[in-house]
Write a structure and sequence with these properties.
heterodimer, A: about 525 residues, alpha/beta, Rossmann fold, Nucleotidyltransferase, domain 5, seven-stranded mixed β-sheet, six-stranded mixed β-sheet, 13 helices, about 25% strand, B: about 375 residues, alpha+beta, CV3147-like fold, CV3147-like, 2 domains, 12 helices, about 30% helix
Chain lengths: ~525, ~375
């Protein structure tokens, strides 16, 4: 048995699974301290299905906690950004494009030092240990508790980041947290460095949250390993989560998409996740979310995180229904979190999409007599408008003329009809409201490589095999069962103007967790 | 008239330059940051209309040369292009009166602005490509008889060198590229030093202001919930480019890349939303040709631009990904880029394409 928990900003969802069979589900308000909400969720699961805590073999948690901490600029540690690249790159020092509010919130200090590599592995400059010790002394004098270290072309060679970490660590002592950019991101120095600084700033918070989660689960008598889910739908163990909190940032949409896949049994589909205010549409390919291609802004900071390609639009259970029959529109304005006060079925005076769904008999929420008076034509048109919006977005996500199956999840998905115009039947799996917690519970572990290779004549196949093997090795190192690891993504981009067929290769491998 | 370019206009300029980059020329985002830093320290930049430049003035264009993928990792510096300019001035024994882009598309549109901010020189509102191209000789400057030599180059360790190959700009391109690789895959260059009268005769005029207008049109359309692609069409009207045609709306369904002769060659396939029609774009760093259902609809030097369909943001060839939703537009190149001499240097045949050039507005009349 495994337990999946999704700690959202509003709700904490949890499920108890046996394989992919759902034994119990719960949805409750998220608590201020996170952990007591989790204990309540575990209580509720146990009330439905009396499991022995020792029978649980794994607990998987998805959380938006760290992302919210950054967005709200709270609980961030005093952080230094150290870059190895001099004499190159000095014109754009670390933190150069950060919103001042966040630079201030992390007490951000930026340092440049000699080092870095060229694209082909030559050194830009040798590392200067005295220079680094000088920087470390300045960091100490300014109360820095967490350091982000980046080096030019560290995805090609991590030598300098590792050496600098030893030197800075020796100077600042065992309590300082060190984040190395080659472990965090891809090629693209500023974006990778930004992600590393965000990670560094979250390290203290991560230590506290992770200890809290572990304590809550252990206190419940569960001795199974605990994992957090990452942006790409794979899992990390607690030690990794302590060091890489930034990797949890986009796990929300990923979890609900992966949950939709396992609930519906469809692994290539469009997933429509209908929430209270907005709906998210993403595409699953072989069970994994298609990733966005462009740079991603997080709280005004440009990063190159692995994020799913998701389109959000303003239709959800709380959307306002306006206009009379013949000119009905739904959303994008919404009653938001006041749904349970403002909607007609809850005794309020605002006509919402939820009221329309209840009037049409699609859902049994609140007082259905409160919407008995609604004009049947208006109800039909409102639901038709929602269906047309969703169909339009799903259609724009398709990449071939083949029809893409649609799986609907989320509490608001009752709004959708059984058949979407132009898209065919809508799969609405059982337990659709807690798909995100299920996605967390079934997550796998992965490993990724992103590096520039010089591909000599006739060596292409060997080099690409090497990249694939390294991705597999990284997945196994992260806890994957070696027998089932497979490559789920492969991207090869030749770099113009350089000799030796320099080629950037990105490769991702995933597999099921060992021992779960 | 001369005008002042300040930090608040850089986002629009960078977006417009990326559109004119036709998929290549590098992402101007880093260049934009460098200009912003230079302006923060030294103030805004004066932009001169080409007609304002004295006939006997010395204008020195500057740029970066190298691989865009290297420049997103080993960030280009702000000292190097100034060092290249100074090295060329020393070689010529004369100081420049103004600087200028050699390429208004992509990241190279930003380099002269860094130099202008740091040296106080004005920058001329013109360039030698009217878009982005992969090689140094693919310049209207070269087409109309100017030589790129002497060329000064500066690396990130403060090293400089000057090449003089006389009138042989193709050999210069070859040598300079080898040194660029030795310098780590990226370097700053100053070349095509020219007089004001040569500038007026050979440059594509007002391309900085065009980039600014295109970037602004997309931003404003988005803010007002209008179609950004239609707004671009409006912005092109009345300029020497004149015509914009929407070639296709659809999704990326295949991207094929290979390296040949040091260049990223390839093709991208797009499929319409209803799946009934297909577009193929061929590229060598930049997009060169667009074919709808096998028929040529837009050819180099006319501009083929791939934009995110909802936002109007340009997408580079390196960033093209399966599944992206795009609008592909063709923009007519100005007359100075379509003469027989110009087509011999950067027309379809110069890139090995088997199609004779035809203006996009004649292939697709309104």
């Amino acid at each position: 048995m495994r337990i999946g928990i999704d700690v959202g900003g509003t709700n904490t969802d949890a499920v108890l699974l046996d394989g992919s069979h759902v034994l119990a589900t719960t949805k409750a308000a998220t608590s201020e301290d996170v952990t007591s909400g989790i204990v309540r969720a575990l209580d509720s699961l146990r009330a439905q299905y009396g499991f022995e805590p020792t029978a649980v073999t794994g607990v998987m948690i998805g959380t938006t906690h760290f992302l919210n901490a950054l967005v709200e600029a709270r609980h961030l540690a005093p952080t230094a950004a150290l870059r190895l690249g001099l004499p190159a790159t000095s014109s754009l020092p670390p933190l150069v494009d950060w919103p001042p509010r966040l630079t201030e919130a992390v007490s951000g200090r930026s340092y440049l030092a000699h080092g870095g590599h060229e694209f082909d592995g030559r050194k830009i400059a040798e590392i200067d240990e005295d220079e680094l010790r000088g920087h470390a002394a300045d960091m100490a004098a300014h109360g820095i508790r967490s350091v982000a270290i980046s080096s030019v072309f560290s995805p090609v060679s991590d030598e300098f980041e590792s050496r600098a970490a030893e030197i800075i660590g020796a100077e600042l002592g065992p309590d300082v947290a060190l984040s190395l950019s080659h472990e965090i991101g891809r090629i693209g120095l500023l974006e990778r460095e930004n992600a590393t600084v965000i990670n560094a700033a979250l390290r203290e918070l991560a230590a506290g949250i992770v200890d809290g989660l572990a304590g809550a689960v252990a206190g419940y008598g569960i001795c199974a390993p605990l994992y957090l889910s990452q942006n790409d739908g794979t899992l990390m163990d607690l030690e990794y989560a302590r060091r890489h909190p930034v990797a949890t940032f986009a796990s929300g949409p990923t979890n609900s998409m992966r949950g939709a896949a396992v609930l519906s049994g469809v692994d290539t589909c469009a997933v429509v996740d209908v929430g209270g205010t907005t709906s998210d549409v993403g595409v699953l390919q072989q069970g994994f979310p298609r990733e966005a291609g462009t740079a991603v802004d997080v709280a005004g900071i440009r990063t190159n995180f692995r994020m799913p390609d998701v389109l959000s639009f303003g239709v959800g259970g709380g959307s306002l229904v306006t206009g009379g029959a013949g000119e009905v529109s739904v959303g994008p304005r919404s009653v938001g979190y006041r749904l349970t006060e403002d909607a007609l079925v809850f005794g309020g005076s605002t006509l919402t999409a939820t009221d329309v769904a209840v009037a049409a008999g699609l859902a049994d929420i609140g007082d259905r007599f409160a919407v008995a008076h609604l004009d049947g034509r208006l109800v039909k048109e409102a639901l038709g408008a929602v269906a047309a919006d969703v169909a339009r977005v799903v259609d724009s996500m398709r990449t071939s003329s083949e029809p893409l199956p649609v799986v609907a999840v989320g509490g608001g998905s009752v709004l959708l009809p059984d058949v979407l115009p132009g898209c065919g039947a809508v799969h609405r799996p059982e337990h659709f409201a807690v798909a995100n917690a299920i996605g967390a519970a079934i997550a796998q572990v992965g490993g990724e490589v992103d590096r520039v290779y010089a591909i000599d004549q006739g060596r292409r196949a060997a080099v690409l095999d090497e990249a694939r093997q390294e991705a597999v090795d990284r997945a196994v190192a992260a806890g994957a069962d070696p027998s089932g690891v497979r490559i789920v993504e492969f991207d090869e981009v030749p770099i113009p103007y350089l000799p030796g067929n320099a080629t950037r290769v990105r490769c991702k491998a995933v597999g099921d967790l060992h021992h779960v | 008239m001369s005008w002042t370019l300040g930090p608040s206009e850089l986002d629009d300029l960078a977006r417009g330059a990326a559109i004119l980059g036709t998929g290549g020329g590098g992402d101007p985002w880093i260049g934009r940051l460098l200009v912003a830093e230079a302006m923060r320290e030294h103030g805004p930049v004066t932009v001169l209309d080409p007609e304002e430049v004295a006939d006997d003035a010395l204008v020195v264009p500057v740029a970066n040369m190298g691989a865009p993928t290297v420049m997103i990792e080993k960030l280009p510096g702000a000292d190097e292009p100034v060092a290249a300019l100074r090295a060329l001035e020393r070689f010529l024994g004369r100081e420049a009166d103004a600087t200028m882009p050699i390429e208004c598309g992509g990241g190279n549109s930003m380099i002269p602005l860094i130099v202008a901010a740091r040296t106080g020189l004005p920058v001329v509102d013109a360039d030698g490509m009217g878009r982005a191209f992969p090689e140094l000789q693919m310049e209207t400057f070269h087409v109309y008889g100017l030589t790129a030599s002497p060329l000064a180059m500066a690396g990130d360790h403060g090293e400089t060198c000057v090449f003089d190959t006389g009138r042989d700009t193709v050999r210069l391109e070859d040598l300079a590229r080898r040194v660029t690789v030795g310098l780590g895959g990226g370097a700053a260059i100053a070349e095509f030093a020219m007089s004001g009268s040569d500038l007026k005769r050979t440059a594509v005029p007002r391309t900085l202001s065009l980039a600014l207008a295109l970037g602004r049109a997309v931003r404003e359309a988005r803010a007002e919930h209008r179609d950004p692609v239609a707004a671009l069409g409006e912005a092109v009207k009345g300029t020497i480019y004149g015509h914009l045609r929407v070639l296709f709306r659809g999704k990326v369904t295949d991207v094929e890349r290979r390296t040949e002769g040091g260049f990223a060659q390839g093709r991208a396939a797009f499929t319409s939303m209803d799946g009934t029609s297909g577009l193929e774009v061929r590229f060598q760093n930049e997009h060169l040709a667009a074919l709808v259902d096998g028929e040529v609809v837009c050819l180099v030097p006319d501009l083929v631009c791939v934009l995110e369909v909802d936002t109007g943001e340009p997408i580079t060839t390196e960033a093209l990904r399966y599944g992206q939703r795009v609008a592909v537009v063709g923009i007519a190149a100005p007359a100075i880029m379509r003469t027989p001499e110009a087509l011999a240097v950067f027309g379809p045949q110069a890139f090995g394409l088997p199609f004779p050039f035809r203006p996009v507005e004649r292939i697709l009349p309104v």
